[in-house]
Design goal:
Order of helices and strands: HEHEHEHEHEHEHEHEEEEEEEHH
Strand order of the largest sheet: 8-9-10-7-11-12-13-14
Distance between the termini: 64 Å
CATH superfamily of the largest domain: Dihydrodipicolinate Reductase, domain 2
Number of helices: 10
CATH architecture of the largest domain: 2-Layer Sandwich
CATH topology of the largest domain: Dihydrodipicolinate Reductase, domain 2
Helix content: 25-40%
Structural class: alpha/beta
Radius of gyration: 20 Å
Largest sheet: 8 strands, mixed
Length: 354
């Protein structure tokens, strides 16, 4: 049987026509050799039909989806199998619940919801309806990430992990933004932690412990936040694992740009440096043995095609074709675990007005 006939097919409804949706749609239409699923952009939902048409013309290539001037029309479209939610995270819960109520599967951008309570509400609804849902933490699905974690935890190329450092910094001029910007408005979930700090936290969790969800060790968490205009412009997190003494120092900021080498994982036999254009997009890691006579080993991501959102989309398609309602790499429990950690960090962080 030709391979294309064995590939699962998903018909996507896109909620939102902002930057993240443009990246996702662009990846769905880019030609690539390693495709494992067929993705059809079936519908676009925007705040107006005009915006939807402009979005398709700019990012959609040769696609010709249904274009709606509302999100509700996408949820109601019988030809849509799954909804991708790319709107500001303050609206994720309501969007997920509406999609689920129409029997749609869901891939929702990170952070999944504003807090763990909202996330649990969404997962409860998905379970009741029997639909698939996953948080779109795309970094976890990249082949380079999987290779790195295998080498750390299974092959133990640097021995026992002792510490992880990770930073995600962007320069965001809050004064130049309107009060309604998702990057500035506290009601929209603005702030360094929810927007980019979740990646630093994720790398810390992945590097310090092989377990996820129910199998993960529980760290002690210490944090500090700098607050300006009602949102955190910088967050620092220390994870301490009393079970083995491991520590993670994980930071995010809207004041400075992070270095291309954004993470360092230190072990008993060496160090690993991770680099990329952003902390969310690793493109190389270097293994540096403690033995000065041993050579460094450099591992690069596959040749760049698109941005890499298709890895998570392919995983979703395979799951749904197999009848699963959650993904093993990013199960519901892992989303709730990370949300709960961020809830605690936001509640306990030391706030200091600039």
């Amino acid at each position: 049987m030709p391979s294309e006939l064995r590939r699962p097919t998903l018909r996507w409804g896109i909620i939102g026509t902002g930057l993240i949706s443009s990246w996702f749609v662009g990846d769905m239409v880019v030609p690539r050799a390693d495709v494992t699923a067929t993705h059809v952009i079936q519908a676009i939902g925007s705040s107006s039909s005009e915006k939807g048409r402009a979005f398709v013309e700019k990012y959609g290539g040769d696609i010709s989806p249904s274009i709606y001037g509302s999100y509700d029309a996408v949820y109601a479209d019988p030809d849509v199998d799954i909804v991708y939610i790319g709107i500001p995270h303050a609206f994720h819960k309501d969007a997920c619940l509406k999609a689920i109520s129409h029997g749609k599967h869901v891939l929702c951008e990170k952070p999944f919801t504003l807090n763990a309570q909202e996330g649990q509400e969404v997962f409860n609804a998905a379970k009741k309806m029997g639909v698939y849902i996953m948080e779109a933490m795309w970094t976890r699905f990249m082949p380079l990430t999987a290779q790195l974690l295998r080498m750390i935890h299974r092959e133990k190329v640097i021995g026992d992990v002792h510490r992880v450092f990770c930073d995600f910094g962007l320069v965001i001029d809050l004064d130049s933004l309107p009060a309604t910007s998702r990057l500035k408005d506290p009601a929209l979930g603005a702030g360094a932690l929810l927007d980019i700090g979740v990646y630093s936290l994720t790398w810390g969790l992945l590097g310090l412990d092989e377990g996820i969800a129910g199998t993960a060790l529980k760290p002690q968490v210490f944090s500090a936040q700098s607050i300006s205009q009602g949102i955190d412009v910088a967050t620092s997190i220390v994870l301490y694992y009393p079970q083995n003494g491991r520590q993670g120092i994980l930071t995010s900021t809207m004041k400075t740009k992070s270095d291309p080498v954004f993470a360092r994982i230190e072990g008993s036999h060496g160090t690993i440096l991770i680099e990329g254009i952003a902390t969310s997009v690793p493109h190389r890691f270097t293994v540096i043995p403690s033995d000065a006579t041993a050579e460094r080993q450099v591992y690069d991501a596959p040749p760049k095609v698109g941005k890499g959102f298709f890895y998570e989309a392919d995983a979703v398609a395979r799951d749904i074709a197999a009848g699963r309602v959650e993904n093993a790499t990013m199960p519901w429990g892992e989303t709730l675990r990370v949300l709960a950690l961020m809830d605690g960090i936001r509640a306990a962080g030391v706030s200091q007005e600039d």
